[in-house]
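Narrative of accomplishments. A recurring question from our advisory board has been how the design workflow behaves on a single, concrete structure rather than in aggregate. To address it, we present the structure tokens for one chain from the evaluation set, followed by the sequence designed for it. No filtering or post-editing was applied between the two.
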């Protein structure tokens, strides 16, 4: 991960901690179970495919566009469901297999998203208005998606998320 991308994730976590008034730890379930590198890469590539597919769908349809812009939670429902699955710690008693959380893959996804934000911020010089608007929309959606993934990664409850979102809206 690049220095700017790492700084972006660290800064987002610090902002969450400041708003909530407590430190946020990484998920511990599944963290000590080794995951083969090829499996980890595969799970990350699936998350990246969901990101690109849902982003492209939004560009084509503008389904989730509101006056203030698209909502990440509505633009990326499949990706956020996938993240929930990667972090799943409990299953129903009649489930055929146990929960198998993979927080390392979610951390890899956060790295990918942060790198994408950095790429979008740096953007090509001399882009036309349409391309600039598209990049800005993707930057905003990806930036909000990072927050949504962090909420899930750190197990924030609904009330915590509401406080964070209210603080963002008032800023």
């Amino acid at each position: 991960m690049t220095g700017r991308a790492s700084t972006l994730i660290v800064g987002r976590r610090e902002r969450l901690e400041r708003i909530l008034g407590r430190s946020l730890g990484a998920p511990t379930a599944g963290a000590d179970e080794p995951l083969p590198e090829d499996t980890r890469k595969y799970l990350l590539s699936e998350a990246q495919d969901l990101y690109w597919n849902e982003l492209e769908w939004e560009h084509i349809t503008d389904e989730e566009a509101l006056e203030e812009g698209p909502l990440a939670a509505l633009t990326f429902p499949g990706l956020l469901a996938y993240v929930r699955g990667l972090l799943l710690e409990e299953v129903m008693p009649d489930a055929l297999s146990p929960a198998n959380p993979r927080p390392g893959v979610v951390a890899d996804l956060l790295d990918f998203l942060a790198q994408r934000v950095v790429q979008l911020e740096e953007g090509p010089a001399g882009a036309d208005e349409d391309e600039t608007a598209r990049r800005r929309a993707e930057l905003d959606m990806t930036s909000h998606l990072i927050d949504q993934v962090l909420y899930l990664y750190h197990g924030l409850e609904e009330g915590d998320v509401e406080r964070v979102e209210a603080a963002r809206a008032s800023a």
